[in-house]
Design a protein that fits this description.
single chain; little secondary structure; two-stranded antiparallel sheet; two-stranded antiparallel ribbon; 211 residues
């Protein structure tokens, strides 16, 4: 540091390089795909973003209603308070993504990877989550009324105080899942795997554990 202070030119060059790196990162984070400028608060309803790498995009508060995000990589991305109503997220990688307080009404999430994603307080009524990976996913206070979770892998998922009214959980794996306070009225629970599952009344359901 002393050497830099004694040489103002080197000091200026170093700072210019640092600023340049930050600027380059910011530019790289914002990309335009099929006419959609991918960024926070982006307005791209119906956009085609299938297969895109959106891992560092920060799509918080974005309007992506009806967008095609099938096969897109959104792992670790921040997508809070976003509008993904009727969006196609089939086969998308949403592992560790923050989707809290987002709107996914009627969204297609079949085969989507939502491992350790945060969907707390999100709305997913009528969403299609067939065969979705929900391992360790936080769905606390989420609205899943009428959602289809057939064959979903929800090992260790958290559904605390969530609404699963009328949801289809046929053959879903709820091993180690937490359902404390969840509303399961009229939910379809055919062949659900319960093992070390904490039920809405806090009782432990081990009916599906291998003996």
């Amino acid at each position: 540091m002393t050497l830099l202070k004694n040489n103002p030119l080197k000091y200026i060059v170093c700072w210019a390089l640092v600023v340049g790196m930050f600027f380059t990162s910011a530019v790289q984070a914002q990309q335009t795909i099929n006419g959609c400028l991918v960024k926070r608060r982006a307005s791209c309803p119906g956009a085609n973003l299938s297969g895109a790498n959106l891992t560092k995009s920060n799509l918080g508060s974005a309007d992506l209603a009806g967008a095609n995000l099938s096969g897109a990589d959104l792992s670790g991305d921040r997508i809070t308070e976003a509008n993904l109503t009727n969006a196609n997220l089939s086969h998308a990688n949403l592992s560790a993504a923050n989707l809290s307080e987002s709107y996914l009404n009627g969204a297609n999430l079949t085969h989507a990877n939502l491992t350790k994603a945060d969907l707390s307080q999100s709305t997913l009524p009528g969403a299609n989550l067939r065969e979705a990976i929900l391992e360790g996913t936080n769905l606390s206070l989420a609205n899943l009324k009428g959602a289809d979770l057939t064959d979903a892998n929800a090992i260790g998922a958290v559904f605390v105080m969530s609404s699963l009214v009328g949801a289809n959980l046929t053959r879903a794996n709820l091993t180690g899942a937490t359902l404390v306070g969840a509303d399961l009225h009229h939910a379809i629970l055919l062949q659900v795997k319960f093992c070390k599952t904490i039920m809405p009344d806090r009782s432990i359901n081990n009916s599906g554990c291998q003996k």
